[in-house]
Amino acid sequence: MADHLTVQDLSIQFDTPLGQQHAVKNISFSLKKGETLGIVGESGSGKSVTALAMLQLLSDKVLINGVVQSTSNRNLLTISASELQEIRGKEIAMIFQEPMTSLNPIMSCGAQITEAIQQHQKVSSTVAKEQVLELLRQVQLEEVERIFEAYPHQLSGGQKQRIMIAMALSARPSILIADEPTTALDVTVQKDILSLLNQLKAQYQFSIIFISHDLGVIKQMADRVLVMRAGHIVEKGTVAEIFNNPQHIYTKGLLACRPAQHFDLSKLPTLDTIENEQIITLKDTVARKQQLAQQPILLKVDNLSTWYPAKKNFFGKTTSYVKAVNQVSFEIVKGETFGLVGSSGCGKSTLGRTLLGLEESQAGSFWYQEKDLMTLSETEWRTWRKRLQIIFQDPYSSLNPVQPIGDAIMEPMKVHGLWKNDLARKNKAIDLLETVGLEADHFLRFPHEFSGGQRQRICIARALALEPEFIICDECVSALDVSVQAQIINLLIDLRTKFDLTYIFISHDLSVVRFISDRIMVMRSGKVVEIGDATQIYDKPKSIYTRELIDAIPF
Questions:
Q1: Helices (H), 67-178
Q2: Percent of the chain residues past pLDDT 90, beyond the cut
Q3: Contacts of 329 by beta carbon, 8 Å cutoff, 6+ apart
Q4: What are the pLDDT digits (tens) for 434-481?
Q5: Torsions phi, psi for 436 (to 5 deg)
């Protein structure tokens, strides 16, 4: 089978305050015609920067050496800008990780794909539009005329990713680079996107370089796999070789970091525990259930409904609603981790925000320690929020980029008048940083100076600053590498014991929820589908919808 792409001795160096730093060092690989090559590794391993370098999408200040030879037998690293313009999109196309930031927010989706077509074909706008509508049908979008006129913010995450796929295929490339195309999507949408890519690959006979940090996704998509760490390829082989007989300790660690499906460990394995050959004990689920059975009810929710106006008439009166949360009832006992799962739009996050008074409910009630929180005024809520905290999905957007992280942790203490002065608050903040696995000298650093996993630890420290009793974890590990995700989940388990915390753990990934939760509630279209013991929900789901969520998990 002929090679579609050959990479030889590729090295990439960045200028940093510490001097030249290698992001990628002397890597070589090839992509065969009709093949899907998976590239897997943690953030910072060099996966994405390798793909960007191949199409010269990095800054001119970045030093790139080596040879990237495409089907046209030209070195893509040395050809002119005009030659490269012909290759981008037409010979090699790329789907980026975050479609919202990749799409132009002030252009309609149809106009953006039309522009891509006319870049490589001399056709009229009418002909281009017909091609766009056909592409939208091929990526299995409905109401293609409406989608053509829609702007990115008017579409769901899965729809935006399909737009990106349609744009990438508009010039019929022979190679498609997919850079983490499903990382931010829920498991059911992810399954659909992966299936779509495989269908289109079979239809158009292109090759794929599929980049991901999730070995489960790579197993589902790839023919061969490259495992990268710190700019090096540490292992390569077929999917069967990598998954059935991994040789490198790092590959073994990545495989172990995902929650096990058929047995319960007390902690998730991490790269550190694998490399140091630490033994992890099994959960004592019987003792855990007996302990929780003796605890009082902490939160009781009864027929809670949170609706949003969907349509209004000429006079401004609401004529229909989006029923984001619709007559939901459940109870949580002290010290419990209550898992909340469902696909995007099912009402998980709205429910969490309603319980914190961040969204106004239309009906029902929710009680916390026999206090009806529905009756609280805004002033009263300020006091109660000291006891009820939230950790958001995206730690970077929930931190102030111009505020040192020490100040971010101290700020809620000041608002609630905790500790006698700023020195005491600083000492408490440093203690919290060390509690979540960071260091005292991180106090004065800014959010951009940390990795994604470190930023999530900072947000956890900030949530703990008010010494809460109850924390809502809203998709707080969904965008993290599997190895970092394991570290954060283990940290949450340790903190639950140390501070006697109660959690609502919201996620679309049932395998993660099953691992950390005592009980699970499955939601769909604002309603409760089923509630039960975590193992029972996972092993013997009563609902077809729950089974679909489980089946969508890549193994």
A1: 81-87, 99-102, 109-120, 125-138, 144-149, 157-169
A2: 49
A3: 301, 302, 303, 304, 364, 528
A4: 999 899 999 999 988 887 788 889 999 999 999 999 999 998 887 778
A5: -90, 15
What are residue 297's phi and psi, to 5 degrees? -70, 125
The answer, yes or no, to whether residue 246 has pLDDT greater than 80, is yes
**Token pair belonging to 352:** 């969490």
CA pair distance 382, 386, nearest whole angstrom = 7
Residue 395 and residue 458 in contact, taking contact as beta carbons nearer than 8 Å: yes
Q: In what order do the strands lie in the sheet with 175-179?
A: 92-95, 175-179, 207-212, 36-40, 224-229, 232-238
Tokens 């975590």 found at:
534
DSSP, collapsed to helix, strand or coil, labels residue 130 as helix
Identity of the amino acid at 271: L
Q: Which tokens hold the place of 538?
A: 């996972």
In sequence order, which ranges of 22-66 are alpha helices (DSSP H)?
47-54
Residue 494 main-chain phi, psi, to 5 deg: -60, -45
Q: How far apart are CA 258 and CA 256, in angstroms?
A: 6
**pLDDT tens digits for 505-546?**
998 888 889 999 999 999 998 999 999 999 999 989 999 999
Residues in the chain: 555
Q: What is the mean pLDDT of residues 318-328?
A: 84
How would you classify residue 174: left for phi > 0, otherwise alpha for psi between -120 and 50, otherwise beta?
alpha
Q: Tell me the C-alpha to C-alpha distance, in Å, between residue 406 and each of 298, 431, 433, 471.
A: 31, 11, 9, 21
Query: How many whole angstroms separate alpha carbon 489 and alpha carbon 139?
Result: 35
Q: Are 25 and 11 in contact (CB under 8 A)?
A: yes
pLDDT band at 2 (very low <50, low <70, confident <90, very high): low
- In tens, the pLDDT along 346-394 reads 889 899 999 998 888 989 999 999 889 988 888 888 888 889 999 987 7
The alpha carbon of 505 is separated from its chain's Cα centroid by a whole number of angstroms, namely 15
Angstrom distances, CA of residue 486 to CA of 120, 176, 508: 45, 31, 16
Distances, alpha carbon 292 to alpha carbons 6, 97, 536, in Å: 58, 41, 17
Highest mean pLDDT among 253-257, 339-343, 509-513: 339-343
- Is 93:36 a contact under the CB 8 Å cutoff? no
Give every strand in the sheet of 318-333, ordered side by side: 318-333, 297-312, 363-368, 371-372
Cβ atoms of 224 and 37 within 8 Å: the answer is yes
Q: What is the pLDDT of residue 1?
A: 55
Count CB neighbours of 545 within 10 A.
19
